């Protein structure tokens, strides 16, 4: 799809066709949305679709998860006119942090951290990442926010897969993603 082309009819998820499949092997996500972010209307519609379920909800801050969640999270924060908090992989913040170990989608053990001075008790935070595959990364972010007294106002990602971890998150938190119901099985099977 041409990066300047905008379809005459734009239904939810039309921009998913901009994503490219993984050609680099098992240490990478199965689908790459970075081309979607290059498409001005695609990015705007993706963010609008992610935020639609949260219209009227109390959200004090948006937090994006390292690293691709920074793109959608910052775009969502700008749209909502809220602050943006980066939840980072360990070792990147030079301030006091709290850390949380987790296992990512490729079964690698990692540690995530967040600065301790950004979340005050009761602060309502919308967590954003590009993808929730196994749920390990998002669960670690949830744990960090809640450990500091914040409230998870919602979880938003391009796709939340129907994995065990994805289901756990969807059962406990208000969630939003961009994959139409009819396409969800294909995304769950990485097709």
UniProtKB/TrEMBL annotation:
<dbReference type="GO" id="GO:0005737">
    <property type="term" value="C:cytoplasm"/>
</dbReference>
<keyword id="KW-0808">Transferase</keyword>
<comment type="similarity">
    <text>Belongs to the purine/pyrimidine phosphoribosyltransferase family.</text>
</comment>
<dbReference type="InterPro" id="IPR000836">
    <property type="entry name" value="PRTase_dom"/>
</dbReference>
<protein>
    <recommendedName>
        <fullName>adenine phosphoribosyltransferase</fullName>
        <ecNumber>2.4.2.7</ecNumber>
    </recommendedName>
</protein>
<keyword id="KW-0660">Purine salvage</keyword>
<dbReference type="InterPro" id="IPR050120">
    <property type="entry name" value="Adenine_PRTase"/>
</dbReference>
<feature type="domain" description="Phosphoribosyltransferase">
    <location>
        <begin position="56"/>
        <end position="178"/>
    </location>
</feature>
<comment type="subunit">
    <text>Homodimer.</text>
</comment>
<keyword id="KW-0328">Glycosyltransferase</keyword>
<dbReference type="Pfam" id="PF00156">
    <property type="entry name" value="Pribosyltran"/>
</dbReference>
<dbReference type="InterPro" id="IPR029057">
    <property type="entry name" value="PRTase-like"/>
</dbReference>
<comment type="pathway">
    <text>Purine metabolism; AMP biosynthesis via salvage pathway; AMP from adenine: step 1/1.</text>
</comment>
<dbReference type="GO" id="GO:0003999">
    <property type="term" value="F:adenine phosphoribosyltransferase activity"/>
</dbReference>
<keyword id="KW-0963">Cytoplasm</keyword>
<dbReference type="GO" id="GO:0006166">
    <property type="term" value="P:purine ribonucleoside salvage"/>
</dbReference>
């Amino acid at each position: 799809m041409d990066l300047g082309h905008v379809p005459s009819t734009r239904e939810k998820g039309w921009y998913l066709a901009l994503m490219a499949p993984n050609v680099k092997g098992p240490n990478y996500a199965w689908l790459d949305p970075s081309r979607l972010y290059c498409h001005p209307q695609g990015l705007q519609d993706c963010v609008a679709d992610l935020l639609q379920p949260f219209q009227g909800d109390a959200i004090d801050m948006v937090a994006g998860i390292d690293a691709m969640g920074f793109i959608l999270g910052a775009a969502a924060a700008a749209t909502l006119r809220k602050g943006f908090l980066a939840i980072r992989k360990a070792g990147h913040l030079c301030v006091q942090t709290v850390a949380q170990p987790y296992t990512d989608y490729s079964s690698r053990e990692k540690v995530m951290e967040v600065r301790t001075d950004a979340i005050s008790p009761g602060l309502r935070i919308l967590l954003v990442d590009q993808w929730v595959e196994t749920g390990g990364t998002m669960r670690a972010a949830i744990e960090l926010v809640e450990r500091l007294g914040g409230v998870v106002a919602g979880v938003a990602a391009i796709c939340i897969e129907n994995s065990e971890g994805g289901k756990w998150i969807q059962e406990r938190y208000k969630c939003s993603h961009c994959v139409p119901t009819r396409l969800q099985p294909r995304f769950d099977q990485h097709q």
